[in-house]
């Protein structure tokens, strides 16, 4: 394989070459289809290249590993899930209701992956196991969503203002993992909506103290 | 293998035969040694039987499967960990400090398994994956410990009394899983003491509201 300088494409690690290259979209679409159909683990870069009549070395011009492609697809899935949670959050006014919807919304999305998009669930699980960058970016976006809600609640007087903001947001963000982490949902083997509501109530009471 | 009526020994499922039989202790000790040395997955009932000059069928008189032995050893380890956390809890007076120590104590024990007793960590992980009875009993004991602290705090006036007790205790008990679940500690790859303290603070603020 020809060695090239890796160019960061859109800030995503492991991606290289021109950002707006049509080929990139074509590769991403083929990867998405393969990961959904056969799973991340069972798909090779050669499978993806072959599906769109490209050579594997040519594919390396855009993604320097299968993981880089996995991270790109995983980011798309996690971003979509979070965007749906943000819609649920935007549909209610009070910061209390918004925060509750972060918990139940994430639980519902995680449970949806497990039940309706099992191969995506498995890939998200790999991203947790191998601490992919896509996961870190998702966790950061989730933290920012929770932070915006808490700041809004502090400004509106719904939430207290004396506890350290970053620590509180980080802790509450971690707490949502109990209902979104693919392994925990798998081990529970059932929807954790009630548990998510109960933990959301603890978070909410801590803020309205 | 001779079929006998299964007698519940000490209420532990999968155990049979007379409770106080010396053989049972001998088998448990050999199992403990094997699981610690070679790991639960790699040990067979035949290995354990051979180590103490028993036949495998004879061993079945006491434990009806490897999992029954695994659950017995796992219970011992989890009970010991929880007993150590209870000691830490008993050493401080205020319900706030006690609750904080449940979080940091469990984190420390979980981290201890991962770092100092790796094979035990792996077995506890199996118990989470396969939802062993030993895990359910541990979770119940953890819930009861947290419930005792919260009831004490309600009686002393340190904690509020208006929220539903069982729901709150269940939620806070679940929250400790973030720092005790062997898979989460493994994926974190570092001590989660600071995170445990931050989440404990959320729990404590929710109770002092």
TrEMBL record, chains A, B:
DNA-binding region coordinates: 44-63
Domain HTH tetR-type: 21-81
Pfam families according to UniProt: TetR_C_27, TetR_N
InterPro entries attached to this UniProt entry: DNA-bd_HTH_TetR-type_CS, Homeodomain-like_sf, HTH-type_TetR-like_transc_reg, HTH_TetR, Tet_transcr_reg_TetR-rel_C_sf, TetR_C_27
Tagged with keyword DNA-binding: yes
Entry annotated with the keyword DNA-binding: yes
Key words, A-Z: DNA-binding, Transcription, Transcription regulation
GO molecular function: DNA-binding transcription factor activity; transcription cis-regulatory region binding
SUPFAM superfamilies in the record: Homeodomain-like, Tetracyclin repressor-like, C-terminal domain
PANTHER family the UniProt entry points to: HTH-TYPE TRANSCRIPTIONAL REGULATOR BETI (PTHR30055:SF234), HTH-TYPE TRANSCRIPTIONAL REGULATOR RUTR (PTHR30055)
Name under which the protein is recorded: AcrR family transcriptional regulator
Organism: Granulicella aggregans
